[in-house]
Specification:
This protein is mostly helical and 97 residues long. 45% of the residues lie in helices and 0% in strands. The radius of gyration is 23 Å and the shape is flat.
């Protein structure tokens, strides 16, 4: 039995259900539909907000989306600050003194 790594392609010829672009597109649009339905469901229950802004329609959905975008942008900036060279963990040689 051969051991597969994430970078070696599966050459056994097996097809998985996510290999078909149509299935990936169905999942994407299903998640979009679910997100819209949950956003609209915000109007169907009574809120007990602590802050006044929490009364706004869809506040938690918009806040969550903005927080996620901010997290991704922050991660991109931090990546530049902490990024190391490609051979950072390579063993030191006599030429690297």
């Amino acid at each position: 039995m051969t051991q597969q790594t994430p970078h070696t392609p599966d050459d056994s010829g097996r097809k998985y259900w996510l290999d078909a672009p149509g299935n990936v597109e169905k999942i994407f649009w299903g998640l979009v539909l679910l997100s819209v339905l949950l956003f609209l469901a915000d109007a169907l229950y009574h809120k007990h907000p602590y802050f006044g802004i929490e009364k706004a329609f869809g506040f938690y959905g918009v806040f969550g989306f903005c927080a996620c975008v901010a997290l991704i942008l922050t991660a991109k900036i931090v990546r530049v600050l902490v990024m190391r060279t490609e051979n950072y963990y390579a063993p030191k040689t006599e030429d690297d003194s």
